[in-house]
Request: fold
Amino acid sequence: MQNIILIGPMGSGKTTVGKQLAKRLRLDFVDSDHMIEERCGVSISTIFDIEGEDGFRKRETKMLSELCERAGVVLATGGGAITSEENRILLRKGYVIYLKTSIETQLARTQKNQNRPLLENVDAESKLVELMSERGVLYEQEADLIVVSGDRIVSKVVDEIIEAMDR
Ligand code: S3P
Reply:
C-alpha cells in the first residue's frame, strides 16, 4: 500500500488530521518533525539555533528518505519539506494530500506552540504570508488531493479524505 503523505504550511493541522486519519485507516502515524526531535534528543528550535536552517533541512531530507522507505504509514511532513526537489521526489512515492488553510487559522494554531523557529522574533503574520507566496504553488503542484482544513472539525476533514480516496 502507498503511504499517505500530508503536506501544507505550519498550523494546517497535518499532525492532528494525520493521527485521526491513521486511526481510521488502521495505519501507523509518523510525524517527520517529531522523529527528528526524538533522534536528536532536542527540539526543532534548538536544532535551528545550533545548526541553522540548513542543518535542519539536511536532517529533514535524511528523515524523509528513511520514513518513505516504510510501507502503509500516514506521514505528516514539516511545512518546508516541499521546498527541496530531493524531498519532492521522495514524497511523490506516496499519495500526497495538501491541507489548505487560511493565514488566520495558521496564526491561531501556531500561537499555541512556541516550537516554530521561523516565526520567532518576527511578525508571524507577515512571515506566514511570505512563506505561502513562495510555497503555495509547490503545495498545489505536488498534491494528489487538496482538502480545505481551516478550522473545520477534524473528523469532517478525515471523512472527506477517505471519501476522495475511495473514489
Ligand atoms: C517549518 C515547519 C515546521 C518545522 C520547521 C520548519 C517550515 O513544521 O518543520 O519549524 O519551514 O514551514 P510544521 O509545519 O509541522 O509546523
